[in-house]
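Example 9 (inverse folding). The structure is encoded as follows.
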């Protein structure tokens, strides 16, 4: 959470509109001067910090996540205890798998953090826990009742348990001792591999590992004393952690110490049971799960939610420096969800926030230092951009003016942004840069333009439709009157049929008027042509032998909601008038920055003299207004359609979607 500016920070900051960047009015512009006048030098070094903001919100998220983890752990322990009442073997298996999963998770965190020079503890502990998990997995599979290791009794899983405990205790003792040694990751991995292999060989291949459990007698003296030795090693590990506690964050140190203490209690519980299904054995496993849960909170939960808490020596001072940088950038990042750009006095990018980076398609590091006008403004707008920038820095442009200025992304696409700008001044009052915040209004601009075009088309349609309906009504009345004058005349039936046809035409006109009335009424939206084509096919009763194919599953177009009638009419017209159509194909292809959506069939095609006429309102009224309606719907969002097929070989309609009106699913904002 970016902190608000303190009210006592007062200064003179003029608000204007540089042509180079957009923005909303900066909050409390007068309060920004003292903090902003020095950003010219620090903005470049702080831009990485701007990408990894960490404040009170992050701390609260960590606290919430940890308490949530403890709640889940408590419920898990209760569920495990209840499970033991049903099946102790099931209880044991679940408990061991929970510990194994946590150990592997710690290893993943540690291994991915191995590049840091000051993570000796994390590397040793994480790698050791991986091999502890491996031996524990074999112990779980060998447990009495699992039936996997045939010919072995309860001694085998007990031996494996003691081996894993020795390895665990040694890991937790060695890790703090090697904290500042920075051992190589390969050497650590090789050392633990050797120890784990020796343990397994001593139990399976060369059975020299002492017996730990004898059927009918219970635990051997070696097993009991081993548990005490392991408890002592764990206690020494806790002391070692306490001695280097300053190298950890307080939260991590506290959870590690608690985990070791609970682990000691677990080992002591394992000295008391006689049966492997005994109560003390169950208590020992519950305490083991609790200790691994504390290790999870210390390493995995904290490492994911607050990764800096796992960077040790010297990190505290580094974090404090980063926090100071964060405070210095607080006023920039306070405008959430908008583009945020700082330009130096030469018009070069000094800082850019994440939202601006996303819109421009350019990483923040690559954008810093680039000339804004030359890099992110189209050639047609550069002179206007420079004039606005100059006017703002020289005080010739009024404060807080809203300026619409398109920006050019790295892929060549343009976005329309509404900018508001503030002049930044140094300690001497000289202009040192421009602070600009902006809102991407591309869709809004398209929607406004589309609505304007729709109103124009609706007005035109109203006149055309009204005229046609009145003409047809006149015809209908005339024929009806003729029929009434001579009821016995043989031509009466003919007149009535013509009157009926005229009324039918009136109905078609009204239905068309209703459809066209819906065009442009709703705000355009991103839609998937492939889904609209499939929907149209489901509505049409296509004759047998006609196949419809579409091959652009990820394509989306910004169009009027009525665009589904475009594909419906194209398919319907091909079926009705193509005569020998057997296949209708939809595809797409790029045409510069625009996109072509192609609809092709293998029917008779359109005669050359009618390729333009078919889109006119007056074309062959007996066939309806399908293609005229299609052109009108597409025109709402700036799309056009034309017919380019070869007569006799099939029709080919090309829909041109302008730049900014199409995208593929992976390119969504």
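The amino acid assigned to each position is listed next.
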């Amino acid at each position: 959470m970016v902190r608000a500016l303190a009210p006592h920070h007062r200064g003179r900051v003029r608000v204007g509109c540089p042509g180079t960047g957009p923005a909303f009015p900066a909050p409390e512009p007068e309060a920004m001067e003292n903090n902003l006048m020095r950003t010219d030098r620090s903005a470049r070094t702080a831009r990485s910090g701007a990408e990894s903001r960490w404040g009170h919100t992050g701390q609260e998220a960590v606290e919430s996540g940890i308490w949530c983890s403890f709640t889940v752990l408590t419920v898990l322990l209760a569920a495990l205890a209840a499970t033991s009442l049903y099946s102790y073997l099931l209880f044991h298996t679940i408990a061991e798998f929970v510990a194994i999963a946590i150990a592997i998770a710690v290893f993943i965190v540690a291994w991915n953090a191995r590049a840091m020079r000051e993570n000796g503890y994390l590397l040793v502990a994480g790698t050791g826990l991986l091999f502890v998990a491996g031996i524990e997995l074999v112990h779980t599979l060998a447990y009495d009742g699992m039936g996997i290791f045939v010919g072995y009794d309860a001694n085998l899983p007990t031996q494996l348990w003691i081996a894993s405990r020795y390895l665990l205790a040694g890991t937790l003792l060695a890790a703090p001792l090697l904290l500042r040694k920075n051992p190589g990751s390969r050497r650590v991995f090789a050392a633990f591999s050797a120890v784990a292999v020796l343990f397994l060989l001593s139990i399976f291949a060369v059975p020299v590992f002492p017996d730990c459990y004898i059927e009918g007698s219970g635990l051997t003296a070696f097993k009991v004393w081993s548990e005490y030795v392991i408890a002592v090693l764990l206690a020494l590990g806790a002391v070692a952690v306490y001695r280097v506690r300053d190298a950890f964050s307080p939260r991590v140190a506290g959870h590690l110490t608690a985990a070791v203490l609970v682990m000691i209690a677990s080992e002591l519980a394992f000295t008391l049971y006689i049966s492997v299904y005994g109560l003390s054995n169950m208590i020992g496993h519950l305490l083991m799960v609790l200790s691994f849960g504390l290790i999870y909170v210390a390493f995995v939960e904290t490492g994911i939610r607050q990764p800096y808490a796992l960077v040790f020596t010297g990190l505290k001072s580094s974090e404090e420096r980063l926090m100071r940088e964060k405070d210095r950038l607080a006023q920039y990042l306070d405008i959430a969800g908008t583009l945020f750009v700082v330009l130096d006095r030469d018009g070069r990018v000094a800082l850019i926030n994440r939202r601006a980076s996303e819109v421009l398609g350019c990483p923040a590091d690559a954008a810093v230092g680039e000339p804004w006008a030359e890099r992110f403004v189209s050639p047609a707008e550069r002179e206007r951009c420079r004039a606005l920038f100059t006017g703002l820095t020289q005080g010739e442009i009024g404060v807080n003016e809203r300026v619409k200025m398109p920006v050019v992304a790295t892929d060549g696409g343009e976005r329309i942004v509404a900018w508001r700008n503030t002049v930044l001044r140094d300690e001497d009052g000289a202009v040192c840069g421009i602070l600009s915040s902006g809102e991407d209004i591309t869709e809004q601009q398209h929607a406004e333009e589309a609505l304007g075009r729709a109103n124009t088309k609706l007005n035109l349609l109203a006149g055309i439709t009204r005229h046609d309906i009145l003409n047809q009504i006149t015809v209908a009345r005339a024929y009806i009157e003729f029929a009434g004058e001579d009821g016995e005349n043989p031509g009466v039936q003919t007149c009535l049929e013509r009157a009926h046809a005229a009324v039918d035409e009136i109905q078609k006109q009204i239905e068309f008027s209703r459809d066209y009335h819906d065009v442009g009424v709703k705000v355009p939206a991103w839609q998937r042509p492939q889904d609209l084509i499939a929907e149209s096919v489901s509505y049409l009763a296509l004759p047998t032998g006609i196949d419809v194919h579409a091959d652009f599953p990820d394509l989306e177009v910004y169009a009027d909601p009525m665009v589904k009638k475009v594909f419906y009419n194209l398919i319907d017209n091909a079926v009705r008038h193509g005569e020998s159509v057997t296949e209708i194909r939809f595809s797409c292809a790029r045409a510069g920055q625009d996109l072509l959506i192609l609809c092709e069939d293998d029917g008779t095609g359109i005669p050359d003299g009618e390729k333009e006429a078919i889109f006119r309102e007056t074309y062959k009224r007996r066939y309806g207004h399908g293609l005229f309606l299609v052109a009108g719907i597409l025109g709402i969002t700036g799309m056009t359609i034309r017919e380019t097929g070869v007569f006799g070989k099939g029709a080919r309609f090309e829909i041109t979607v302008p730049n900014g009106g199409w995208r593929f699913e992976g390119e969504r904002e």
